[in-house]
Amino acid sequence: VLYRLLQHPEVTEELLKEQQQVLQESGLDPNGKSVDVFTCDVLKKMLKLDSVVRESLRLRNQFYELPHTNIRNHNVVLSNGTIIPPDRDVLINLWHNHHHGEGEENIGEFKPFRFVDTRYPATKVGDNYLVFGEGKHACP
């Protein structure tokens, strides 16, 4: 994320404006002189910051694949007919998943505010965003 912000200083300015606005609306001192507690609820209102984090991790993260093992005692049949036998390891290609979205424009470009008006925060996992895994063992 820091790398992307260094490449795009104009984005940093937008994030600073958003931060000041959200802090003021939340009754906190944007200059950091308040003794009030900065909470997760305040952070969740920073939609541009969330979008920059999500977009940065979508474009490049430390994992290129996500391993899974069929721990059931029977075959798992995928929607395309592929059969995964018990105890078989499967790798999900994260790079492909994050660079071939349906209906996405300029999917290979850094668009910092791509996710501002969506229902997908950076910490929300799903089929189109697997940085933190998926299912009951997903982080965070």
List keywords for this structure.
heme binding, two-stranded antiparallel sheet, 5 helices, oxidoreductase activity, acting on paired donors, with incorporation or reduction of molecular oxygen, alpha+beta, 34% helix, monooxygenase activity, 10% strand, 140 residues, two-stranded antiparallel ribbon
Range of strand content: 5-15%
Secondary-structure-derived class: alpha+beta
Residues in helices, as a percent range = 25-40%
Describe the biggest sheet? 2 strands, antiparallel
Instruction: Indicate the radius of gyration in whole angstroms.
Output: 19 Å
Protein name: Cytochrome P450
Cofactor: heme
Pfam families: p450
GO molecular function: heme binding; iron ion binding; monooxygenase activity; oxidoreductase activity, acting on paired donors, with incorporation or reduction of molecular oxygen
Walk me through what this model shows.
This is Cytochrome P450. Pfam families: p450. Its cofactor is heme. The protein is an alpha+beta fold. Helices cover 34% and strands 10% of the residues. It has five helices and four strands, in the order H-H-H-H-E-E-E-E-H. The chain has helices at 2-7, 9-25, 40-44, 47-59, 94-99; strands at residues 65-69, 76-77, 83-84, 89-93. The strands form two sheets. A two-stranded antiparallel sheet has the order 1-4. The radius of gyration is 19 Å and the shape is elongated. The mean pLDDT is 82.
